[in-house]
Amino acid sequence: VAIELINTGSELLLGRVLNTHQQWICRQLADHGYEVTRQICVADEGRQIQAAVRESLSRADLVLTTGGLGPTSDDITRDLIAQLLGRALVEDPAILSTITGYFAQRRRPMPASTKVQAMVPVGARVLPNLHGTAPGLAMEVNPNPFRESGGRSWLILLPGPPRELRPMFTESVLPLLRNEFPLAQPFVCRTLRTTGMGESMVEEKIAGSLEFLRPVGLQIGYCARVGEVDVRLVGHGEKAEATVRQAEEIVRQLIGPLIFAIGDGTMESTIVQLLAERRQTLALAESCTGGFIAHRVTNVPGASAVLLCGLVTYSNDAKKNLLGVREETLAAHGAVSEEVAREMAEGARQRNKADFALAVTGIAGPDGGSESKPVGTVFIALASKSGTVMEKRFNAFDRETFKFVTAQQAFDLLRRALVTEG
Amino acid sequence: VAIELINTGSELLLGRVLNTHQQWICRQLADHGYEVTRQICVADEGRQIQAAVRESLSRADLVLTTGGLGPTSDDITRDLIAQLLGRALVEDPAILSTITGYFAQRRRPMPASTKVQAMVPVGARVLPNLHGTAPGLAMEVNPNPFRESGGRSWLILLPGPPRELRPMFTESVLPLLRNEFPLAQPFVCRTLRTTGMGESMVEEKIAGSLEFLRPVGLQIGYCARVGEVDVRLVGHGEKAEATVRQAEEIVRQLIGPLIFAIGDGTMESTIVQLLAERRQTLALAESCTGGFIAHRVTNVPGASAVLLCGLVTYSNDAKKNLLGVREETLAAHGAVSEEVAREMAEGARQRNKADFALAVTGIAGPDGGSESKPVGTVFIALASKSGTVMEKRFNAFDRETFKFVTAQQAFDLLRRALVTEG
Fold first, then answer.
1. Measured between CA atoms, how close is A420 to chain B, in angstroms?
2. Average pLDDT over chain B, rounded to an integer
3. Is the Cβ of A185 closer than 8 Å to some Cβ of chain B?
4. Strand B282-286 and strand B356-362: pairing?
5. How far apart are CA B112 and CA B118, in angstroms?
6. Number of Cβ pairs closer than 8 Å across A and B?
7. Span B201-244, pLDDT tens digits
8. Is the distance from CB of B290 to CB of B314 less than 8 angstroms?
9. How much is the ipTM here?
10. What confidence score (pLDDT) does residue A187 get?
11. Is the dihedral angle over the CA atoms B335, B340, B343, B344 positive or is it negative?
């Protein structure tokens, strides 16, 4: 099934907003075994929208559009598509009464322009909107006049606001898709998320050993972001499940300790889960990461069960007063040193009665580097009942990447300790 | 100038990553007077990439691609485009030596596959990569065989990682664009970033008073994101500079106190700048935002001059021990209360000898709400030498949006205090 996604909206091409629809819709389809073959963004401009829809219909079995169904003057998708397909627009009394009810319930006057949302191209199926006034529209284009091979395609128009689009997609689009385009064969997808090794090294470690599974339908994908590499194992066909399982076992044998999460899991959710399972607690002492480690931990629902506190000790005074780092240590070794990282971690652990404490001190840059400690130098310490372990790293990146990579390394130090201690 | 952007990467169409390139590149181009007419995503698949590039070259003066220049087997953009244009790939010794140096400096072994990044299509201009190993490639396609009208187009290949792409875009692509496609007439764009009022209210306040500047070429755009509304003032033609300056003055008269930054400025950079100018210091006490406020402050280079410390006091014990919040206050009012927020802020200010202290306590959700304090309830306190001011807010969003909006409100409370005290 060839699927194309067209996102309309001038604000997208002006770069004022991020296209979150793309990731969300693509992820939904991929998780259900469907593949988006192309995604296109065009401005709210008649000729552009019609050209994009015509071209997508010439290639795809299913074309999805987002945006442009609202009541304002730049909401033109419905009109343009009806025109392109040569279908008249007819007022749908059921939609009109839903819209009228929507405003009545909220005791707001209904602007006259809202009525345009009750116009439906002849033959279109109406997809209910549970969180707004513009319904979605699904049309079977049969025969498809834009495709050389003829046949039929589906064209589905979805509203722009995420809280309207997402439930409509789940409740109306996926069932329609499963019904009109059932999967030809079983599909299994598993993503192993790794850290601590670059993309090409990961590939070098595992690709050869997985080669023999390619003929039975294994596909391997790598996705590198800074500080992590996803290995995506996809199986098609009758043996998909077994193939992916076998591939996963091989990857685990080769680079098991690097895998920090599966699928949608994150490093921080793994940390919170491992600590929660063990009923253990964490304290954080951050200098150069400036609260980012605490931020990531507290993004996980339930973090309050394991995180006692986070101390962002930017100044030397804060390191002394809040963590008990000694004046002599600071004077002898400087704030960015193995010795200070150790005292930060041990101070955070003891003062907060935590099972584990992670501490980081380093030079995020752009200023503050020296010859012996250049920008990017960072010391990470993990204190636990087994003592304190240290890592020195060199993360020469821009400031935000520095924070992410340093946090990732600190989390991984803790993760490995938790997994090893069992 | 018709510009098309092609983002390659199966991870985009699988929904594994968000397409931040699109927003960033479109924003850069729009701010410099150029317009992206279409954006396309295709998978790392030979036929798809070649078809997309061929089609974009048939329409556009400039085609930008991102991704697929790395060393792994799914990095195929360079090869495919050389093949499409019928150009041989030649190893570039200068690039190879840069790559070798990159690995030597980091004391890491260089995987053999990395060498492929030194291959350059005949006639291509090499765009240096300051933060990675894959250089960008710029090719003049002249004559352009895919365009009916003939003429020339430029095709520019950029690497996928943002920290590599962004400096390359600024330092190599923009100058090339200005040189090869100079703007027909002066273009001035100024974005005023506001917080504290919804999009339609902002428009209602200013649109009427700016109407008289439309005939001389003023365009006004509004873009609302959660917690902020951008007002984009664009001028075209000879008087662009004066028109936009005049428009800005009018907007400042009408809604000046809402404007927290200009252009690419952020709330946090404004805060750090205002404090640094006044040689004043800040301490933070965060509960529900979990370090996110400290994280945003420390994203600003130079934050160490103004931020003394950040305390993420998730547990009640941490609130008592680190901030001196009284047991009785916690017992009488609960951790999420105006009284606790006040004691957090005052404790953080006094204990750290800071000029200002911001404190937040609230219920981020998904759990922890009650009838009197539903999920989304938050108390913000600002302590200074003039006393303590409080705000109660209701931010009923998902967890990450809750953190962002709450941080934005806390920053704005401080910003208004700083601006008022002068």
1. 26
2. 93
3. no
4. parallel
5. 12
6. 278
7. 898 899 999 999 999 889 998 887 778 889 999 998 889 999 99
8. yes
9. 0.84
10. 87
11. positive
Closest partner residue to B71 (CB to CB) among A52, A200, A351 is: A200
Q: What is the pTM of this model?
A: 0.85
Residue B299 DSSP label: T
Which residue is listed with tokens 């098309």?
B4
**pLDDT value of residue A422:** 59
Phi/psi region, residue B123 (left: phi>0; alpha: psi -120 to 50; beta: rest), is left
Strand (E) or helix (H) holding B324: none
A400 contacts in chain B (CB < 8 Å): 299
Looking at residue A221, its pLDDT comes to 85
Computed on alpha carbons and rounded to an integer, the radius of gyration of chain A in Å comes to 27
* Torsions phi, psi for A149 (to 5 deg): -75, 0
Q: Name the more confident of A274 and B132.
A: A274
Q: Shortest CB distance from B310 goes to which of A30, A222, A312?
A: A312
Opening angle at CA B283, ends B277 and B289, nearest 5: 115
- A27 touches B at CB < 8 Å: yes
Q: Which of A275-284, B164-173, B364-373 shows the lowest per-residue confidence on average (mean pLDDT)?
A: B364-373
Contact indicator for A230, A220 with CB cutoff of 8 Å? no
Average pLDDT, chain A: 93
pLDDT tens per residue, range A363-421: 988 888 888 899 999 999 999 999 999 999 999 888 888 999 999 999 999 999 999 87
